[in-house]
Amino acid sequence: MSAARRFSSRTFAALSVRNFRLYFIGQLISVSGTWMQSVAQGWLVLQITGSSVDLGIAVALQYVPMLLLGSYGGLIADRHEKRRILYFTQVSAALLALVLGLLVTTHHVTVATVFVLAGLLGVVNMFDVPARQAFVQEMVGRDLIANAVSLNSVLMNAGRLIGPGIAAGFIAVVGTAVCFYANAVSYLAVLLALALMRRAEFLPMRTVEREKGQLRLGLRYVAANPVLRDVILSVAVVGTFAYNFTVMLPLLTRHTFHQTSAADYGLLMAAMGLGAVFGGLFVAHRSRPTPRLIATLLLGFGLFMTLTSFAPSITWAEIALVPTGAFSIAFMSSANATLQLNSSQHMRGRVMSLYGIAFLGTTPIGAPLIGAIIAATNPRIGMEVGSGFALITGVWLVISLRQDERNIAMLQRA
Q1: Which end of the chain is more exposed for a tag (fewer CB within 10 A), N or C?
Q2: Of 373, 8, 332, nearest to 152 (Cα)?
Q3: What is the CA radius of gyration of the chain?
């Protein structure tokens, strides 16, 4: 077997599973639509109010339900069939995108209606994220979970690469409404993929019966496991302070580089998406992530995010965002796979809901905070605050890892 074929078979191993292959194709189409909506919504808020704080609020409201009730969404994923939950969430998200498109077309959209629809989408995501994360192992099994999670990250960022470019073209030619309509239609691909899956090929997964104290039990379970605890804390810091690119990049485009075209913002997003595809493929090629790898990737993310903040022109920012995207998604993919590999089957929904809270649920805190920092200073400072927290957390992870290794060695000697 040639080296190229060995690389391909190892990197794309999970795609040999029919159900996951269907899921992958459906999600690729849907995620492209999601990124189109994300770009269009951010640009729409800036058109309506021109306020960085309003932009931060619009982004944050999509994740408030995850922050407040995300653990409950994970418990629902542990109790019920994941595919059934996904049918509900995909239909609901499609309807919300359709409503936003109609409001823009009929000139009834206001910043308040954008806020309301963003909040409702957050309720949908509260159930969708843990169910979707836990559903991956049900399709591919434990041996392929790290590869499948990384490929899932690749498709998320392939959508980021495709969606913003298309959105920028649509916004420039026909306006923002078409992006919302396209997103609504894109959910049909996921619904079709779910319908075509073979139930008999799913791995049997244990569901949890309703009992009191199940949310507290999930929290205690994570707190007692150093790997789960440290990874989730790291993701929480990054999610709060560093991963606010839907706030940072539009403002960097408009206020730092003085570009008024949505195409320039789309190119920044696409550059980060391109790097993220490379980062996801790197992690997919590895058999298993390690805590040391996670710490290294986080330090790389912080370093290149810092370089992006110092970019002298939008062209240099696009170049710097490629490795920034690569390290960021490699970190998130490795963290995701580590949590799934180190959590028991009956706890996985709750563990992954805490991952969702750490990564997405912290956005209601981080997005307005970064928006306010940028409003008081400038977009470069906002990005440097995020990169600084990423670097500090990476150093903390390295120290924590060494401490854990020393503790294990002491126990072995005893």
Answers
A1: C
A2: 332
A3: 20
Count of CA atoms in the C-beta half-sphere (13 A) of 11: 16
How many structural domains are present in the chain?
1
φ and ψ at residue 143, rounded to 5 degrees: -65, -30
User: Which two tokens mark 242?
Assistant: 């560093």
**386: Cα separation from own chain's centroid:** 16
Q: What is the pTM of this model?
A: 0.72
CA atoms within 13 A on the CB side of 405: 9
Task: Pick the closest to residue 250 from 266, 271, 270 (CA basis).
Answer: 266
Which residues form the domain of 283?
A: 12-200+214-413
How many Cα atoms within 13 Å fall on the side-chain side of residue 343? 32
Q: What is the CATH number of the domain that holds 378?
A: 1.20.1250.20
Which residue stretches of 15-110 are H helix? Answer: 18-48, 52-61, 64-79, 82-105
Residue pLDDT, tens place only, 398-411: 888 777 666 655 55
Question: pLDDT tens, 295-347?
Answer: 999 999 999 999 999 999 989 999 999 999 889 888 988 888 788 777 776 67
